[in-house]
Specification:
Layout (H helix, E strand, L loop, with lengths): L3 E2 L7 E3 L4 E3 L5 H8 L5 E2 L11 E3 L3 H7 L2 H4 L7 H12 L4 E4 L3 H7 L4 E2 L15 H8 L3 E2 L8 E3 L4 E4 L8 H18 L1
Parallel strand pairs: 1-4, 5-6, 6-10, 7-8
Antiparallel strand pairs: 2-3, 9-10
Length: 189
């Protein structure tokens, strides 16, 4: 397992204690290295031939830095290294795992694919971003409704997705869903 991130500036830096943006500037690769404890490489250096699969985590980092979904929604652009990495794994018929908001990357890069970001309605207040499902459909992709502890496998495209924090759920349920995504990715590898 190796960890990669693009060597780009963050769109904005957020003080998560206060929940508001700050004026400081940070680099995505440097911040990712902090989380990965230094064991990380620039995404531009990734060689698909050296890996059996790729998994993208989700979160605001995806929506703000790997693409512009947080600002532009379905009209977003995807970072060139992220897009080329996804396309290379797809072309090599190697599985792609995406969780939380990152299934929108597949929706932008692979028209017609199937993904999940949970439910298409805010069921019991647990899916506050349910409109993401309709935006995915507007991009020409099929959104599959799934519970937080489940994943969806698009066998034709070898794309496995789960909603993770797109659902307001206990951490153990989110953990279970991410676990099923990883298991399904490994089965396809």
């Amino acid at each position: 397992v190796k960890i990669f991130a693009p060597n780009i500036e963050q769109r904005e830096v957020v003080n998560h204690l206060k929940g508001s943006p700050t004026e400081e500037k940070r680099n995505v690769l440097v911040e990712s290295a902090r989380l990965a404890r230094g064991n990380i490489q620039d995404l531009a250096e990734l060689k698909v031939s050296e890996f059996d699969a790729v998994i993208f985590p989700g979160g605001f980092g995806v929506a703000k830095n790997l693409c512009s979904w947080a600002v532009d929604g379905k009209n977003c652009t995807v970072n060139e290294h992220v897009s080329s990495t996804l396309q290379a794994f797809h072309s090599a018929k190697k599985p792609i795992g995406l969780c939380c908001i990152s299934p929108v990357l597949a929706a932008k890069v692979f028209p017609g694919c199937e993904v999940t970001v949970g439910q298409d309605k805010n069921v019991d207040g647990r899916f506050p971003d349910a409109e993401t499902a309709s935006a995915i459909a507007e991009l020409g992709c099929k959104h599959i409704c799934k519970n937080v502890n489940e994943s969806h496998v698009d066998k034709a495209n070898k794309i496995v997705t789960t909603c993770a924090f797109m659902c307001k759920a206990p951490l153990h349920e989110i953990f279970d869903g991410i676990g099923t995504m990883v298991q399904e990715v490994l089965k396809l590898a």
